[in-house]
Amino acid sequence: MTVQTSELADFISPVPSDVIDAAGRLRNVAIHTPLLQSDRLDALVGGTVFVKLESLQRTGAFKFRGAYNSMSRLDRSRCPLGVLAYSTGNHGQAIATVGKLLNIPVTVVMPSDAPHVKVEKARDQGAKVVLYDRKTESREAIAARLGASGGYALIPPGDHPHVIAGQGTAAFEALNALPANSTQVILVPCGGGGLAAGTSLAVDAVNSTAEIWAAEPENCDDMRRSLESGAREVNQPNATSLCDALLAPTPAALPFSINQRRLSGVVTADDSTVLNAMRVLFEEFRVVVEPGGAIAIASLLANPSLLRGRQAVVIASGGNVDPELFIRAIS
Amino acid sequence: MTVQTSELADFISPVPSDVIDAAGRLRNVAIHTPLLQSDRLDALVGGTVFVKLESLQRTGAFKFRGAYNSMSRLDRSRCPLGVLAYSTGNHGQAIATVGKLLNIPVTVVMPSDAPHVKVEKARDQGAKVVLYDRKTESREAIAARLGASGGYALIPPGDHPHVIAGQGTAAFEALNALPANSTQVILVPCGGGGLAAGTSLAVDAVNSTAEIWAAEPENCDDMRRSLESGAREVNQPNATSLCDALLAPTPAALPFSINQRRLSGVVTADDSTVLNAMRVLFEEFRVVVEPGGAIAIASLLANPSLLRGRQAVVIASGGNVDPELFIRAIS
Question: Does A31 contact B33 at a Cβ distance shorter than 8 Å?
Fold first, then answer.
């Protein structure tokens, strides 16, 4: 592949201070999203939970953080055709929005079954969208083919140090907003693992002793199996879930090298628990969280033994859901 | 009426510095709600709009601010029976929640047609709820009868200087978060007028030159008619609107004395525009705003000549809506 991943080699691993640096870069650009708590939610999960509401982030997901942190550092002379990205939706939308903000041309490769709202919003931002069939094609191969002529910077959703460091700023903000060392557990949604990896760096950046857990859909538990086996396992090709944002087929390599070292474990939940979590978040906080964004809350509901009275930060990672599915959740 | 309105006389008018004082009292207690902007919304209303999202406030409405600011100052020896409040819902819920927080007994008088979710949440906080028929009874009379034996502190939703000052902290936060004097218009939902009055004080507290506008349901436009006539006009007894939070029959006296002096005017919207505004807020920000909370955005959609390219802060004042009505808005 002749596509460059910005000006960095593929596998320079980010370090905790990169999160502090990213937080500085994102100040007054990203939304400092609120931390919300509800007595009813606490009772349901058996602990004290602060929900970091990244559905309110620009573009409706934490992905804006990594997109801005990486694209704002690009050497434009090395990518005259702009940025190429592949995404189940939220990363693509973030890349498209930052492209418009920074005046960088963007091409996004998205699955044809991504929520309509995500495809349309990327196009609204001026991005060129290339659709592919998730069941028969590989997004990496399509991105490589498009990029074969050179001139693009490829910014993948996980395998990029500045993306990982940017994603870590969500947990960094949350940890800094709470009393030092009051947070005993951090639980984040997990697709490719970029958010979990960035969160691990954030925990180290503030010298927190919190355990870091990842949450996955029950039948797309590649991270859980990968941590067990010590190698990057793959989901069944026909595995599906309402959590469209978390359908990456296998853990991304660079985040996995961090997650393998730092994660305490993985918890999962099924689709019906995810819908229930979406309803609880609607009722308690009057917010719209997409299925993948609700997986961490759902996993707490499904695994009541995890918290045991402890205090947790849980990231509600995104809110881009079609009205039909949201109505199904709250009906 | 032998009910005392906390330790203050009914009509001591609050001043701008009271908002600064309230903001200090609410720091680390109220949620510092985010300001959200969307290019699509800006295009729809013909200006730049920052939405102050008070639906994310504790209890789901800005009313928490005034309730906490007033109740945290109570002399408990003067109200051994606790606090008595009447409310279309959000004020009662806020008083109930603060009562639980500060360990003060609360009795709330609510209309029997208030959204079920609001009644239940007040009861969940341990408040005693007294229901009445909004069409045949007066909430003030019921509150007076209950309070006739003495021992209660009455905290009305509008006619209370500490409530008004507390409500002003929402606009105060928004104005302080934006560059000085960049805000040319502030537009707030208006029922009894407490939020508008507090907002006026906040504008003066930061020496802003912004115009202050109120937004009302089209057929409950008592504030608009009152500003025109110079006296507190009354809505038709059978006037109704989806905006249950804004159905106060007439402007409250103390806020009106401030609003009469400071408001630039009133804009209105009908129910179908309110539903449309709720859908736009769902689509652009993934949030749940109740009809009364969306009236200011709806009024901008209905009155495109108001902004004319100017920059505005608009308060989305609350999010307590039954799922059925929210589904109707986003379907």
Answer: no
Q: Which residues of B touch A (CB under 8 A)?
A: 31-34, 36, 40, 53, 55-56, 60, 117, 124, 282-283, 285-289, 319-321, 323, 326-327, 330-331
Q: Under an 8 A CB cutoff, do A289 and B286 touch?
A: yes
Give average pLDDT by consecutive 10-residue segment, chain B, 331 residues: 42 91 97 96 98 97 98 92 86 94 93 82 88 82 76 91 98 97 97 97 98 97 97 92 92 96 98 98 97 98 97 97 96 93
Structure tokens at A294: 């609700």
Q: What distance in Å separates residue A252's CA from the closest CA in chain B?
A: 28
Residues in chain B with CB shorter than 8 Å from the CB of A117 are 283
Residue whose C-alpha is closest to residue B110's, from B68, B67, B74, B142: B142
Which residue in chain A has the smallest CA separation from B31?
A: A34
pTM of the model: 0.91
**Cα–Cα distance measured from residue B137 to residue A10, given in angstroms and rounded to the nearest whole number:** 71
pLDDT tens figures, B66-120:
999 999 999 999 899 999 998 768 898 899 999 999 999 999 988 888 878 778 8
Q: Which residues of A touch B287 (CB under 8 A)?
A: 56, 286-288
ipTM score of the complex? 0.89
